[in-house]
Amino acid sequence: MFNLSTASGTVRITATDPDDTGAIVYTCTGAVRGTLHAAATHHPNQWDDFSAVRVSLGSANDMEEFPAEPLPRLGRGTRAYHGSIVRLLNEPTEYGWRLTPCGIRDADDRDAPPQTAHTLETLMRAVAADYAARPDLPRLFTVARNRETPTLLRWLAAMTPSAEADMQRSEQEAARYHAQGRAVLAAWWHAAGVFAEQPSPVLALVLAPAREGLAHRAGYLPRWAEIHDDSATFYRRRLHHYRAEAEGLRRPRHSRTPVTAAAH
Known about the structure:
about 45% helix; 4 helices; 2 domains; 8-stranded antiparallel sheet; about 260 residues; alpha+beta; about 20% strand
């Protein structure tokens, strides 16, 4: 058990032993009443890298449904709050925190008041530090990998075909715009050669930079080709990333040794 001073008062925190999923339940009394869960997990941007700690208000894991344990409440308040924070242990402390994108919200999906949000975030950071300091942390990361790998592989299997289709579509569009650009440019130069030998009002109109004329299209078609080339490169990298993560998850290996850092 340990005490934590917050902007809302002192919180007394008691931790259980890890359960079979590697999660620890932290029960709070005092200025905050309710539970927090901490669990080893994967890096949010590199799913085959298990070197992060997720702390959730009343939830063992954001990848799963909220459990039945009570959500935290402040003092005598009746509003219960949910949210989570991830500590990336291999990144510097000042950059290694990821608060849930929607922030800390109550059960009716309203933003927590500023002091409440600060108190609960301070609490989550302290719990993350306590979990990360455990001597059995390497074992907990092994448990996390075994627990999360099947779900992560299913997600990657579902996302990979879409990334591949997006890449192929962008490649095809780029090739189409490149071909059209070359054809239009060749047509303009051909018309310019004919005009040089035998000027005519009709050819002058053909060569003029009018909207959707040869000159106009020769200017923008290569740019559209470049845009789709860039898009294809983006999706190609994403596809490679997905495949590399899936390969890493399938390959048995130890988690990277995380660097335990202070909570603040």
